[in-house]
Amino acid sequence: MLKYRYRSVSLLIILSLISLTGCGISTALPSHHSPSPSKTTHQSESTSSTNPVKNSSKPSQASSFPSTVRSQASAVRFNVAVIQAMTYLQHHKIHIPLMAPSVLGFNPPVSSLSAAARVTGGGTTYVVNLYATSKPLTLNSPVLSTLPMMDIIGSFSASQFPSPDSAKAHLYQSNPSTSLAPPYQPPPNVPASLVNLGYGITGTLYNNAALSMAMWHEGEWTFQVWDGTPTQDRQQAMKLVAYLHTHLLPETYGVLGENLAGDGNHTTAEWVYGTTEFSVFNYHSGVQAAEMAVSMRVYPSGKIKP
Q1: How far apart are CA 170 and CA 34, in angstroms?
Q2: Where does the chain have alpha helices with state H?
Q3: Cβ(233)–Cβ(225) under 8 Å?
């Protein structure tokens, strides 16, 4: 049951991004507060004070793809497909801040040297799906809907909520029809043990016949890796911890979940600035999703946050 719960949440996120309907699940938590810090949270945060994550203050200068251009009034380079998508959104009267990745976080096969975008949005929400293609395609090309899942580079999106509290609460929200507990909180009645994830970070490994999951906290962020074996979950968690030791995620409340699904490590990162929730999704890798999240910049200014 628990394993089905976590897999269902991941699939709901994936399907919502790919179908271009926006991110999120509709039912709110009873409280608009994030989970209370656990013992692991205090250990991680106290470690961070002595081993702070380095802030990469200089925006990335290159994309994984060769076709990039420099945005106006900014040293950040956005991929051409990203610029096309952002221009589309600017013309469709989006009333929330636009943010986009300056690093796509995916190295395509040799035959796939182009990126193409499929975008929808209006008012207070937008979703952009990025694909690796063997030749340049126009924005929202019908060909994109025929490509296999493995050609998805990733997605990024944003949605506005009525208040900062409701936006923050949405990070820890679940679908009650398929969930036994809100995501990014400890699963109930599952044996747990502390694990060393490296760089002074201590996590918790949950494991029974239905679920294996590693969970930890860094600052205001909560992380989960699940659906592998306990060893696989810990190894993937350690890769994320190692990357984040020298790269800074958005400095606000956020969550990152990596589902070791067999056909890819489907990963979603979500965070909140004010009343707006931003997210990125990567079909292939947790670290690649983290790279996209780290590289997110306000479009077109290139500022780190709105």
Answers
A1: 9
A2: 2-18, 39-50, 80-91, 164-170, 230-244, 286-295
A3: yes
pLDDT of residue 29: 25
pLDDT along the chain (306 residues), means of 10: 40 41 30 30 34 34 38 67 94 93 68 82 94 90 89 92 95 62 81 97 94 95 95 98 97 95 92 97 93 95 94
For tokens 């004010």, the residue is 274
Are residues 52 and 43 in contact, defined by beta-carbon separation less than 8 angstroms? no
Measured between alpha carbons, how far is residue 161 from residues 28, 96, 118, 131, 201 in Å?
A: 12, 10, 24, 28, 32
Enter the tokens of residue 93. Answer: 């009267």
The two three-digit tokens of residue 17, written as one number: 């991004």
Tokens of 215: 């969970």
Domain boundaries, the chain: 2-298
**pLDDT value at residue 33:** 30
111: which 2 tokens? 């035959």
pLDDT of residue 246: 97
Cα torsion through 233, 26, 165, 11, rounded to 10? 20
- Distance (Å) of CA 300 to CA 14, 54, 64, 236: 27, 25, 19, 33
Q: Which amino acid is at 217?
A: H
What Å distances lie between residue 216 and 4, 41, 199, CA to CA? Answer: 21, 7, 13
Tell me the pTM.
Answer: 0.76
Helix (H) or strand (E) holding 280: strand 276-282
Q: Which among 23, 128, 16, 122 has a CA at the least distance from the CA of 83? A: 128
What CA–CA distance (Å, rounded) separates 129 from 119? Answer: 6
Q: Which amino acid is at 195?
A: V
If 0-12 CB within 10 Å is exposed, 13-18 middle and 19+ buried, where does residue 33 land?
A: exposed
